[in-house]
């Protein structure tokens, strides 16, 4: 009897071992690395993970929403203020042969978008908006393509099997400036939107040449620009760092439906449940990104500067233009006059 029990026990042990060995191992979550600047980090959403940096990374940004929806393991390296050299020096180390997905938005800071917006927000009698735009567009046409190609080649070399999606920029304006402390003219806003289109065109071309996908958010933001009834992009905000960046709706309803099909093969819908799930990842993301804080400290934030008409420069320009700085009507009338002159001068070049 004892012999039979021993045989039975041995048989049971063998069967158990067979069942255990046949059970599938838990698959590792797909690796997703989000690279780039403030339009990927989530600046503008007004809620940021506490990771010891000034990168302004948000659980409500499209990388977090996509990762939360699909169960991807997100390494959230995108950082406010990042330029192409910053991506190279501080973010690419997160990539590896096992990286499955990569998204990146970059180039706007390299072209000086924030400085351009700061210039164009001033009254035309104080600034040269067209000159600032011309300088940015020259960089986009002549320098950015080579810089992007080099960066994309480095991404491919580090993660040759990854599905890479390059993400573009939306148009910011709808032709109306409803903010009391800025002076964007209609022609200036048209040109600024055209500059966003230009950088998207150049970026799309370089992405295609590298074998990457390109997510163009332009159509999703039409009707949701600054001063539209439902804004996906903040206008002049308090704190000012939130200004001219996609808000939570811009990421959930603007970017996410455009980017997610290219990354995952299906459209992610940012339901309230998903937003809550994404918010729950805040602690994990903060702990993960804190290890990169020293690297991220080298990235200088790009900050929009609110027009200040009390400076000596502004006072001198006002005197030259015959502007009474105590009168908003005088300030605005001169702005319209100078903006019209500058638009005509640019048109005949």
Describe it.
The protein is of the alpha/beta class. The chain contains 15 helices and five strands. The protein has helices at 2-22, 38-41, 62-70, 84-91, 113-120, 129-142, 144-158, 186-210, 218-221, 248-264, 272-279, 282-290, 293-296, 312-321, 328-347, and strands at 31-36, 73-76, 101-105, 163-167, 213-215. The protein has a five-stranded parallel β-sheet with strand order 2-1-3-4-5, sandwiched between helices. Helix 8 links the parallel strand 4 (163-167) and strand 5 (213-215). Helix 3 packs across helix 10 (248-264) and helix 3 crosses helix 11 (272-279). 45% of the residues are buried.
How is the secondary structure organized here?
Layout: H1 2-22, E1 31-36, H2 38-41, H3 62-70, E2 73-76, H4 84-91, E3 101-105, H5 113-120, H6 129-142, H7 144-158, E4 163-167, H8 186-210, E5 213-215, H9 218-221, H10 248-264, H11 272-279, H12 282-290, H13 293-296, H14 312-321, H15 328-347
Parallel strand pairs: 1-2, 1-3, 3-4, 4-5
Helix pairs in contact: 3-10, 3-11, 5-6, 6-8, 7-8
């Amino acid at each position: 009897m004892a012999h039979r029990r021993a045989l039975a026990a041995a048989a049971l042990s063998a069967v158990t071992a067979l069942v255990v060995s046949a059970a599938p191992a838990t698959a590792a979550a797909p690796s997703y690395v989000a690279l780039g600047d403030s339009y990927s980090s989530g600046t503008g959403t007004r809620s940021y993970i506490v990771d010891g940096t000034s990168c302004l990374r948000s659980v409500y940004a499209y990388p977090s929403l996509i990762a939360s929806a699909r169960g991807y393991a997100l390494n959230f390296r995108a950082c406010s203020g990042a330029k192409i050299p910053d991506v190279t020096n501080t973010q690419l180390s997160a990539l590896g042969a096992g990286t499955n997905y990569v998204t990146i938005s970059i180039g706007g800071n390299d072209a000086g978008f924030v400085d351009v917006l700061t210039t164009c927000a001033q009254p035309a009698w104080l600034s040269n908006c067209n000159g600032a735009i011309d300088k940015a567009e020259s960089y986009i046409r002549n320098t950015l393509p080579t810089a992007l190609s080099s960066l994309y080649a480095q991404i491919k070399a580090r993660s040759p099997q990854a599905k890479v999606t390059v993400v573009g920029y939306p148009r910011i304006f709808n032709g109306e400036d409803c903010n009391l402390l800025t002076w964007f003219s209609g022609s200036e806003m048209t040109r600024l939107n055209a500059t966003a289109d230009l950088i998207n065109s150049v970026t799309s071309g370089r992405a295609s040449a590298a074998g990457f996908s390109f997510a163009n958010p332009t159509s999703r933001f039409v009707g949701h620009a600054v001063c539209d009834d439902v804004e996906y992009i903040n206008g002049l905000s308090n704190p000012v760092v939130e200004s001219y960046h996609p808000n939570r709706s811009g990421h959930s309803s603007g970017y996410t439906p455009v980017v997610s099909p290219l990354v995952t093969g299906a459209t992610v819908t940012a339901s309230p449940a998903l937003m809550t799930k994404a918010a729950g990842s805040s602690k994990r993301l903060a702990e993960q990104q804190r290890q990169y804080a020293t690297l991220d400290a080298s990235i200088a934030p790009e900050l929009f500067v609110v027009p200040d008409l009390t400076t000596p420069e502004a006072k001198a320009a006002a005197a030259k233009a015959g502007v009474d700085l105590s009168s908003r009507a005088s300030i605005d009338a001169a702005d319209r006059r100078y903006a019209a002159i500058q638009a005509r001068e640019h048109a005949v070049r």
